[in-house]
Write a structure and sequence with these properties.
The structure is a homodimer. The first copy, chain A, is an all-alpha fold. Chain A folds into 2 domains: 1-49, Arc Repressor Mutant, subunit A (Orthogonal Bundle), CATH 1.10.10; 59-175. Helix content of chain A is 71%, strand content 0%. The radius of gyration of chain A is 19 Å and the shape is elongated. The model of chain A has no long low-confidence stretch (mean pLDDT 86). The A-B interface holds A 24-27, 107-108, 117, 120, 124, 134-135, 138-139, 141-143, 145-147, 154, 158, 160, 162-163, 166-167, 170-171, 173-174, 177 and B 24-27, 107-108, 117, 120, 124, 134-135, 138-139, 141-143, 145-147, 154, 158, 160-163, 166-167, 170-171, 173-174, 177. The structure holds a DNA duplex.
DNA sequence: GTCTATACTTCGATAGAC
DNA sequence: GTCTATCGAAGTATAGAC
């Protein structure tokens, strides 16, 4: 039974992600999502039976994209830490968008919060395996996260911007001295 | 005209802060605030004429407590950076509570967002003046913020916990080598 | 100064037409 | 499969009694 890869469903999820990002954590209503997706609330509720089902649809998409990224990070020739620090390669991707949207959901959805926690743990483990120094892995992760946070929330790099590569050099230089 | 230091107003603000923290970014209603404060919604709306006025009341309190803390941080004998890194002295204070509550408001209130941004800038400037190294000040701030974030949101220190004092030693050791 | 009662709005969800 | 119409719950705000 050949069936259209139903794009209405995907359009609705796209609209949901967009609105979650734009509304910056405030509530996103089914009416808004339906309007943005070009359907009515009734139409939306045909595809996603309830608000909760819509949330779950987003989290499923997040999980898929995140898993793909873990694999890329682990296999990165430049190493997991350097891969993680390349914010320019992350910003603007579908993964980033779904990630932000999932973060917005995390306040009222336990599964979303779990997925975000799980992601942080996996990122740390990969960077630790790469650098072989838990303290350095931890510091690097915190710094990259913080820089991204400033970039993402304030909309511009905090002044002065930190050169992560230079920071890593400075930190790595201290390893031999222990 | 001696007038009671009207504590109903303060009780309402206390309840508002508590509920904002507990509800972790979800909506806090006037009914909930009123109930927690031991007044009715009508009573609440006598003291704070609208939802927006209640928000403003919280932000005024934040601004006052934050300004007091800036002064302490600048005058700290151990230096601004070390003062900033002492999370144990911050966690559990009224300042922390109001700070979290203000952060919750920042999503839907522009003034709250501005106050948070302003606080970050002041913290950075004080640490930079203390350390005399913008890159180190920036890294330290990001790391302390990140550790606090994990502590506050996940409820426990991320494993492994980073020793900020040791980190500062390692980083400061690299300064002479530039 | 604080409470009760209620009006108005918004949101999620259901029923049923098409 | 998508839309219209509408319900019920929850939220903010107002009017007026006490």
């Amino acid at each position: 039974m050949a069936q259209h890869r139903t794009s209405a469903r995907e359009s609705i999820l796209d609209a949901f992600v967009d609105l979650l990002i734009e509304s910056n954590g405030a509530g996103v209503t089914l009416d808004e999502v339906a309007k943005r997706a070009g359907v009515t609330k009734g139409g939306l509720l045909y595809h996603f039976g309830s608000r909760k089902v819509l949330d779950t649809g987003l989290l499923d998409r997040f999980e898929q994209l995140a898993n793909e990224d873990y694999a890329r990070m682990e296999a990165a020739p430049e190493g997991a830490a350097t891969y993680y620090a390349k914010l320019a390669d992350y910003i603007g991707t579908d993964l980033e968008r779904v990630c932000i949207a999932t973060g917005m959901l995390a306040k009222r959805d336990a599964r979303a919060a779990d997925l975000v926690r799980q992601m942080r743990t996996i990122h740390f483990n990969l960077m630790n395996a790469d650098l072989g120094d838990p303290m350095l892995a931890r510091a690097t992760m915190l710094i990259v996260d913080g820089m991204y946070y400033d970039l993402a929330t304030i909309g511009e790099p905090f002044t002065p911007e930190l050169d992560v590569a230079a920071f890593l050099s400075r930190m790595l230089a201290t390893k031999s001295g222990r």
